[in-house]
């Protein structure tokens, strides 16, 4: 910044005085935001391409990511910017540490809210979305976020849509080869579908039925190829809501099986849908969690969602059925205790015509559901189950229901005939859609057995004191033997292995690993989404469009809402809005065989598509020749070299790579992160990326919540108009009471929301305090990963800190800079060194709140001095800069520095000034002096206690006695009281 610029700023602010007020802060902040933008202060150089410069890029880089924001029409409240401020602080800190910091922000702009608004108002979703983005940009700009504006984009931008569609085609044109060797040394990866076809043609890979490739006709060849694709079309069960005319995600369906919007019935229907074969990557998605630095809670959530289980498939023979009834069990060792079976209401066994016409002899009344025949019972139960969601069916708290199918299956280990029930708690989408029920060792099976009067055979010996019911722990196997094999006396692991080997030898089962994860349903009956880059010929065969025809843009439609039906018309089918534009759907194209008639897909991709790869677009946002330049991707996200940690351990080289830090809410712990990892791994396998994971370190920030106030009727009142009063009662307690307009109201704690009438917006904070004060307050409220309550009245504390900082440099009456160029005294120099050392430690660990606390101590110390030394205030201004960048820039300029401090070195402590004065600490045991220790004068109680207990003299004195308590008076006394 030039001297003339500084003078102009001083002239502007002097019109409102020289005290650091919200008005002055606002002027300073907007002036600096303009300068940063004009000068490209936060531009991050790429090593090549149009975002590179002639200068060498720093070897050390730091790629920082915020979770992709959706631009809501409601705007931001003060809870939303918490993560953005945190990442901005971290990015500014690392930039001052000499790293090349990439920090950008785009917008996840496809989505249902804009489409719903379009249905209600007729306004095109693009108009709504762009208005929302403009509003969000304005609100976030006032925060002073250090983003590289050249890298911003929206998922609705045609160029972004083009590459989203291109990635889909890479997935479509790929298959998963479980035997192929990967770049990271493992086995199993995606390969181009053309290579599969070449291997089939050459005979190096067999066709499914063993016939030579040359003997297959065109349609048979297509079927073989399509069955291998990572993107394929399938009849998939979906949540169909006729009353809304659309398919709903599970999250949009209530536990009662109705739509959240409109409360319409929802039915399970099989519809022709695009699927992505994410299950091919299930093992890698689990195993590679160990290569990335994520919170264990999130890794556990991903592992549970993927649900890898090791056990066995077991075949139960069924009279009259062409195939055995196969179940997967993680406990084949309990097979001798299987006393009944359960199939899902959708299981094909029930459609094979083997459900008997009458109830078998011995059928109990409790099994029939009151129906005259098994067929009637099964049909009625299937109809009832169709109206329930998967979540409702799997609710552990609900009473289990079911009916006997009239079918018996044969247990392969003992030949017993076991009755087959159908029950809705078994889902066709999980495992084989059938289970063997072992009520003695499974709580759910035990509950079902009690209701339906089924036998319970214990196969695991429970511990002493067990009071009945299902025992789900480990123990010695019992009651598990036939003429050929005995598991009795074996531990669980050995019993599992033994019975699995026996089943395989008898061709009655085989060891297996299964997953809860299912392929990704990728179709939506929406308008506002990316069109699929494919067409269908007259025979219904799918054809990928060439790259030259991308992007496929959305057409204008006469109506944004899908066709609705009678709410109870379960047999209706979706008619998406794109189907209303026949001139767009039916097209004449030359795809290499001459001009022919083709038909576009009227479904669109889900909004997950854009958010599955946006982190790559930030790297090379203007590249129209490639998804990302390989050199650029390797620089920012490539494999990590081996690194040494401060504790002396070494982290080995890691091919997973990925962004250095990803910050966002834990609500995206599963789906978004899982989908993004899947897309990234496919692109890695195909050679487009050098890293196998998109996000190296993940940090989940907490939330800012707020108090809401309701009156006696439960009606919410404006939170900012509530008066708090604290009066001591007769017992001296001081419980606060709350009133609004003279009437008592009651406080509750939760999230912010318009309905709760407790929203505070960033705009209010900017107007009342300034952006820097708002930033300091949010960062000082507590640890970043912990939720905390918002309290507007407490913001003034952060404002006072900045006002004192301002006064330590600027005279409030004259506006002149008042710092002294005389040397600081030793105490001040030592405090500056300790502060710099502590702040560096806290900032590197993202403990911003404790870093601020240290700076406040130093700032208060300087305030008490007769004159503030330059050598003390300049380091403090630099330390403050990542958190309150505008005031820091302004003070830095007034201190005579012509350039921005954005890349000034972050202060480091002079080691000589960190040497502590020492004192002698007396260590007593039971009141008698046993040792004397030389310790730093500033030692904390916990550290001093640990040193005293490690004293050799103390340990000799205590002998075998324990310690009852330790009294610490740091730094001069420790008294250890032995246990009696």
TrEMBL record:
Its main location: cytoplasm. It catalyses: tRNA(Leu) + L-leucine + ATP = L-leucyl-tRNA(Leu) + AMP + diphosphate. GO terms for biological process: leucyl-tRNA aminoacylation. One of its GO terms (cellular component) is cytosol. A motif ('KMSKS' region) lies at residues 751-755. It is found in: Cytoplasm. Keywords: Aminoacyl-tRNA synthetase, ATP-binding, Cytoplasm, Ligase, Nucleotide-binding, Protein biosynthesis. The keyword Ribonucleoprotein does not apply. GO terms for molecular function: aminoacyl-tRNA deacylase activity; ATP binding; leucine-tRNA ligase activity. Residues 867-939 form the Methionyl/Valyl/Leucyl/Isoleucyl-tRNA synthetase anticodon-binding domain. Residues 303-504 form the Leucyl-tRNA synthetase editing domain. ATP binds at residue 754. Residues 68-171 form the Methionyl/Leucyl tRNA synthetase domain. Its EC number is 6.1.1.4. Belongs to the class-I aminoacyl-tRNA synthetase family. HAMAP family: Leu_tRNA_synth_B (MF_00049_B). This is Leucine--tRNA ligase. The gene is leuS.
